[in-house]
Amino acid sequence: MAEIALDRTDYKILHHLQNNGRISNAELAELVDLSPSPCLRRVKALENAGIIKRYAAIIDAKSVGLPISIFVNVSLHSQERSSLEKFEARIAQYAEILECYLMTGSFDYVLRIVVPDLESYEHFLAEKLTRTPGVANIQSSFTLKQVVYKTELPLQNHR
User: Which candidate, 47, 59, 56, places its Cα nearest to that of 13?
Assistant: First the structure.
């Protein structure tokens, strides 16, 4: 992937695409004061550079039967590179895990998991996570309410 230096127009494009990934090129071009051809070239360059990773719809989890969201802290027996790599490769296969972060502090990883109900989480825990090689400790925290959820990066300082 080629690296590119971003200018104000690129940041404007990113801002608008973060808010509406289905915007037409003509609409986007108008919003960022470009003609359609140069606008499309910039979008393609942002995609080719890996700055725009992909386009996706944001689905309401509750509406599709996945109302339970859990944050799980995981500690491993060993923090050797090979142990971390094995853990990461295994959990990447689990559809219930939407996010995983390698952490500093008292736990090695924080996972965000979604499931339809507590029984499903119990099954996930018993059949998948606790059977993952290297896992030493698991601590689960169930969310009560989503207060803030954003997908837009704060690019306003660059526009």
Answer: 47
Given a cut of 90, whether residue 2 has pLDDT beyond it is no
CATH 1.10.10.10 location in the chain: 8-57
User: How far is C-alpha 27 from the geometric centre of its chain's CA atoms?
Assistant: 27
Q: By CB neighbour count within 10 A (0-12 exposed, 13-18 middle, 19+ buried), where does 59 fall?
A: exposed
Q: Is 2.40.160.40 the CATH number for 62-142? A: no
Segment 30-83, tens digit of pLDDT:
999 999 999 999 999 999 999 999 999 999 999 999 999 999 999 999 999 999
93: left (phi over 0), alpha (psi -120 to 50) or beta: alpha
Residues of CATH 3.30.70.920 domain(s) within the chain?
Answer: 62-142
Name the region of 109 (left: φ>0; alpha: ψ -120 to 50; beta: rest): beta
Exposed (0-12), middle (13-18) or buried (19+): which is 149, by Cβ within 10 Å?
Answer: exposed
User: Which CATH number describes the domain made up of 8-57?
Assistant: 1.10.10.10
DSSP state, residue 49? T
